[in-house]
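Reopening: C-alpha cells for the CO-5-methoxybenzimidazolylcobamide complex, inputs below.
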Amino acid sequence: AASLYAHVPFSQDASYLAIGERTNANGSRVFREAMLAGRWEECVEIARAQVREGAHLLDVCVDYVGRDGVADMRELAFRLATASTLPLMLDSTEPAVLAAGLEMLGGRAVVNSVNFEDGDGPDSRFSKIMHLVREHGAAVVALTIDEQGQARDAGWKVRVAERLIAQLTGDWGMNVGDILIDCLTFPIATGQEETRRDAVATIEAIGRIKTAYPGVRTTLGVSNVSFGLNPAARVVLNSVFLHEAVKAGLDSAIVSPAKIVPVAQIPEEQRQVALDLVYDRRREGYDPLARFMELFEGVDVAQLRAGRAARLAGLGLWERLQARIVEGERKGLEEDLDEALAQRPALEIINEVLLEGMKTVGELFGSGQMQLPFVLASAEVMKAAVGYLQPHMPKVEDGNGSKGRIVLATVKGDVHDIGKNLVDIILSNNGFDVVNLGIKQPVSAILEAAQEHQADVIGMSGLLVKSTVIMRENLEEITSRGLAGQFPVLLGGAALTRSYVEQDLAQMFPGQVRYARDAFEGLRLMEGLVAVKRGAAPEQVLPPLRARRVATGAALTRTEPEAMPARSDVAVDVPVPGAPFYGSRVVKGIALAEYAAFLDERATFMGQWGLKPSRGKDGPGYEDLVEAEGRPRLRMWLDRLHTDNLLQAAVVYGYYPCQSDGDDLIILDPDTIDPALLPTPGRRA
Ligand code: B1M
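Re-run output (same inputs, fresh job):
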C-alpha cells in the first residue's frame, strides 16, 4: 500500500503489519465524537498519534447511523491524503463511501472489505466493491463470510477463503499478494457455548490458509475476541490471542497498541489461563473462562500497570534500569538515574546497563515476543535516559574551537536514530562540530549539507540490513560525483560488519571509509579522518583496514547424523545435491537489451537525475517530465551505451562447498579441500 509519501509492504520484517484502529467511528469514542462535531483537525491528530505509536497503516471508518458517510469520508480522506504519511485502509460497507475515499487518495489504498454475504452476483455488494477495487488498483480485505453467515469452524473459514481467492484472482485479476483474508472471530468470553471455539478455529484457519496459499496475506481485528470482559482482562486476552495468531501465520492486525502488551510481560498464570481460554482447554473442574474472570475480578488497567511498578520496585537498581528499557517504563526513571549516577559514570551506565536492555528488546522483537509499539516505547525511554545523562558526560573544553566538523545522518529509508544521536553527543562533547541531519536522509541531502557546512567528514548510520546496501549506493554516488577525495566517510550501525566496510566497501570507494562499532570507536576515528581531510596520509593517522581472511586448507569434516547437535527436527539424512561445478564463473557479453529492461525508471529519473515534478497544478507532473525529459535522455544514453560500447555487462556466479560451525556458515575454498569429501559436481551425492 502507499500514501503520497511512502509505500508500506504487507510483509513486515520481524513484525506483523500493525493497522491503527483508532480512526474508526465504531471503534473509538473520541474519534466518533470529533467526527460528529466536525472537529476534523482532531480526527487528523488521532491519525498522527497512531503514526507516532508505530502503526504501519491506518484503518479509516466513518460509518455511523444517520450521517452522510460519503461527505464524511470525502472530508476525512482529503485531509489524511496529505496529513498522514501512512497509507490508508478504507473501511466501509457502503460502496459509495469507499468510492468517495478512493477518489481523494494518491498512492494505493486497501479496501476493507468484501465478502459473500449477499452472494457474488452482478448486483451483490461484493461485485460493486470489486469494481471499485479494480478501478483504483487497490488491495482488498476479504472476510470469511458467505451466504450462510460468518464462517465459524476452521473448515468453513478455509472454504470461504478458497472461494474468495479463486474469484478475486480468477474473475477480478487480482494478485494473490494483494488479498488480505480476514478469518474473523466472535467474542469467546461471553459464556455462549457456540462461540467458545471461535478463536481456535480462527487460528487454525489462518495456519491452513497460509500453508495452502503462501502468497496470500491474512489480517484480523483482534479486539473482538475479548468483547464482554473488563478492560484489564481484554488487554491480556487480546495480547495472547494476537501472539498465537501471528505464530500461525497472521500477517497483519487491526489493533490499538494500548490494548496489547508483550506476552513476555504477562504474569505466568494470567498468560496460561488466557491460552487455555483461546484454545478452549476445558477439563473436569476447570473452566478457563471462569478462572480468567476470577483472576481479573476488580482489576483495572491501572492495577495491571501498578503490578508492573511493584515488580520493578522489587528489583535491584541495575536490573531495574534495564527492565525500564525493556518494558518501556519511564515513570521513576530520573530517580533511578540519579541513584545510578552516584555510583557509576554516565557513559558506563549507558554502555553497560541501558544498551544491554536495548539488546534484550531487539531479541524479544526479533523472536516475535514483543510488538513494535513497545519497541517504540523502549526507544523513548532510552532516549529520555540518554538525554538525562548527557550533561553528566565528560566534555572537552580546550578553547581552540572545533576539532573538525561531521555531517551525520541516518540513511534513506531507515528511522533508527538512537545510536546516531549517541554518536552526536559523544563527538560534540569531545570538541567536534556535528551537523545532525536526522533520519531517512537521501544521499543528495547529505552531500548538500556536507558542502554547505564544509564538513570534514560524512557520517552515516543505519540499522536495517537494507541500509547497508543504501550505504554502498551512497558511496557509489559520492564517487560518481567526484567527491570521494573530499569527504572521508564514517559508517556505523548494528547491521554493518567490519569486514563489509573495511573490505567490500573500502575496495570500491576511492576515498577513506571506516567502520565504527560504537560511538567511542567513532570518536577515535574522527581525529584521523579529519586529519586525512586536512591533508595527512591515511596510513599515518588511521588504523590499518582489516585484510580479508582467507581460510586455506580448511578441514572439511563429515558429521554423522547421530553426532549432529539436536537443534531442530529438520531431516539430516536427505541426499545432498551436488553443485554443477565448484568455484566461480563469469558470463560475459550480455546484450544491453537484456538488462536495460530491469532499470527502475522512477529511481533513475527522480532519485538519480533529480527530475522533480511540480506539486501544484502549474508545473509539469511526473508523467510530463518522463515524456519530455526522462525517456528522451534515457534513450540517448541507451543508444550511446550501445553504439560506443560503453558498458561491458557481466555476471559472476559460483558454487562453493560450505559447512556450519555453531551458528556460523563457513564458505570453503574448493581448491583446498579433499575432493573425495565433496558432493560430486553435477550429480546428487
Ligand atoms: Co527496529 N529493527 N525496526 N525499531 N529496532 C532493529 C534494527 C532489528 C535488528 C530488530 C530485530 O529484528 N531484532 C530489525 C532489523 C532487521 C533487519 O534489518 N534485518 C528492526 C526492524 C525489522 C524494524 C522495522 C522494519 C520493523 C517494522 O516496522 N516491521 C522498523 C523499521 C522502520 C524503518 O527504519 N524504516 C523498525 C522500527 C523501530 C522503532 C521505530 C520501533 C525503534 C527505533 C526508534 C528510534 O531509533 N528512534 C526500533 C528499535 C528501537 C530497534 C532495536 C530494538 C534497537 C535499536 C537501538 O536503538 N539500539 C533494534 C534491535 C537491536 O539493534 N538490538 C531494531 C541501541 C543503539 C544505541 O544502538 O543504533 O546500533 P545502535 O548504535 C550503536 C552502534 O551501532 C554504533 O554506535 C552505537 C553504540 O555506541 N553506531 C554508530 C550507530 N550508528 C553509528 C554511526 C557512526 C558510528 C557508530 O558513525 C557515523
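The first strand starts at residue 17 and ends at 20. The chain has a mean pLDDT of 90. Marking as resolved unless the reporter disagrees.
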